[in-house]
Amino acid sequence: MTVVDIHAHVFPEIGRAEARRLTGSDEAPWLRTTDGPDAGMMMAGSAEYRPVRRTLWDPAERVADLDRLGVDVQVVSSTPLLFGYQLETGRAVDWCRTVNSHLLAYGSHAPHRLAPLCQVPLQDTEAACAMVTEAMAQGFHGVHIGNHLGDLDLDHGALVEFLAHCAEEDAAVLVHPWDLPSGPRYSRYMLAWLAGMAGETHLTILSLILSGAFERLPASLRLLFAHGGGSFPYLLGRADNAWHRRDLVRADSPHPPSHYTDRFSVDSAVFDPGALRLLVDVMGAERVLLGSDHPFPLGEEEIGRLVRESGLTPEERDAILGGNAVRFFGLTPAPAPAPASAAALTPAGKGAVR
């Protein structure tokens, strides 16, 4: 069985001078590094944002981590701090191309083990669509986006247009919460991450459902929400109840929220056996994919352990650990010598690994 982790981040070695030149901003994100395994600092201008491990930017260290953890393939995406949605279009295009170039180089270190997702200038629909087309031709496996754009959620017309284009390009879409709620109530105890992230993803999923966006989007769209879909799976009953009882809630959605759980997938990063079993009950095992949030401290330290120890059936376990990801990202196991952990992946119908 091939184990595939679909939620893992990269922060390329972009220095401050390059970040400033590309973005025109002294507050641009960049990476400060020194020697040693834990010698990185994500920076926002002159401010320290988060200490990080070398595996975040060093693909050799990442592959060594995967070997140690028993992960065959990891789908890697940029750290959301790098999205650049606040930039004007020209700078945003240059910035995304630079990040994407680093991601391709990172993946090329071990093309059978590291499968990159691109990022795009989501603030300009035409430019974002063009970059998805460009990136898929370059060998990316899909696109990684934030769950909103300022006050616009993914049900906004321009963003629905972008998602429809991803479906046309057969580009899988990983949606990650970002630009989290702020203020005194969220500033303590990492509450923006512990409460804000779950709420943000829940809000985005409900926005797509209740606005009727899923009625306008092609069924072929492969949409995946990080962090187990936030609080959506655990509050779905409340949303269904509201749809049945209030015309204000159902005004633009012809079906209750539970009708649409077959239109998207989620990862397994919920960190509790009971939560994972409920997630599988709500979404169906075929729409839950192994996700770790590696290599950040809030991620799953032993990738896949929760899935293996949550009392799922063998079929559910194997699907979540790898089978679903193989299908979702259009991958097929390529012939390789034993053991199975050395198995390579190639995109279906594409020959060599992109």
UniProtKB/TrEMBL annotation:
Xref: InterPro entries: ACMSD, Amidohydro-rel, Metal_Hydrolase
Amidohydrolase-related domain segment(s): 4-331
Coiled coil residues, start to end: none
UniProt entry tagged with the keyword Metal-binding: yes
Pathway: Secondary metabolite metabolism; quinolate metabolism
Family listed: Belongs to the metallo-dependent hydrolases superfamily. ACMSD family.
Protein name: 2-amino-3-carboxymuconate-6-semialdehyde decarboxylase
